[in-house]
Automatic annotation (TrEMBL):
Coiled coil: none annotated. This is CoF synthetase. Residues 75-104 are annotated as: Disordered. Gene3D superfamilies: N-terminal domain of ligase-like. Residues 75-84 have a biased composition (Polar residues). Transmembrane segments: none annotated. PANTHER family: CAPSULAR POLYSACCHARIDE BIOSYNTHESIS PROTEIN.
Amino acid sequence: MIIRSARFLLTRLLFLAMGLPISRYRKEVEQLWSLSKEVRAESLGQLLARNRPLNSAGSAVGGLEDLRSSLSLSKKQFRNQSTQGREKHGKSGFGRHTAGTTGEPTQITLDRKELARMLAVRDYCFRHHGLKLGQREARLWGRPEVGIKSRLKNFVMNRRVFHPVGPEAKDEVANLLSWKPDYLYGYASLLLEAAQILDGMEMEFDPPKCVVCTAESILPAQKAYISRAFKAPVAEEYGSTEFDVIAFECTEGHRHLVNPWALVENTKDKGCIVTDVSRTSQSLVRYELGDYVHLESSNCTLLGSTEVIHQLEGRSINRFAYLSKDEKFHALEFARAVDRYQSLSGEVFEFTVYQYQYGRFELDTSLPPGKGSLDVSRFVSEYLCDVVGEPVNVVPAGEKTASESFTKKGYFIQAMGPDHEG
């Protein structure tokens, strides 16, 4: 217990050494949520007047009225805007990069204050569940990334990455439990996979304080199953690379909006639109997130706003690609492979992978790659072979109908039918 407490303190001291006063900003989060809706809106309007971010038309937004009259910002517009900004001002601050759940790569730049605010919102949510940011985290997030930068980041965050898929899955779950994490955090599909493996094991373990599901929608019955397997409550998080935590589930089961600087809108034609009034490194004004959410007011005041996400569309837990009936890997690896290809080639394009039969995957791109569709397909095949440990057949997609091509959410479409798992 003493060693665990000392490790937590070390992590928090490392945050401070990096110029990230998380506790101070967490108190600001708490203070903002304690204000009335009107007073909080006035405070956010003042912040907009001071920061004056640019909207999609390039006009400064100096208040909430300007914000309401601004057009939405697409991911493509944001990428172009960010590229121009880096060319003018150079690259600085903390970088975040993702291939995107919709197959659209996004580069995010944050200064210390912006990153500290993001982490403070996370710390605020965790404390509601008896956790603190910096406590021991077991992360189920695809395969562990290699390299000094990733190892250093995991050390600073006091976490280890586990991947409970493949022939070593049972050992991976056993190692996870032996490490005695304070909490589990990761993809809903991987947490469910780990829970199913654990359900067939006879192993005594110290339950974590909480299991946090993120990135994918999950059914209530699946959450209950994970909770029983790990003997811990399960909380659902909704967030994105651009904003980190947007909504978090309270102990009563409501997904509250929790970032006081993020204004969330639900629109019929553009889906979920988010504005970060505190951001100065990049302008995120009425940014189209790519998901569809249904917001409603509640009487629950346990966490953040009384406005909660009642329903979330666009993120699916069906994220496994099947080599055979018994062999599978997480579809996240497709995003990593294409992301690597784009980093090496300097190209940017959207993509979707379709699976219609075991062991065969069709890669569709929004634009023809410079070296052709066959080149990127071969690259992804070779990348996945190294990751999975056996050949993966990725081929250019055939002609898609208008309803298939780039109108569905997500970069992976599982189309083998309901009986593919046997």
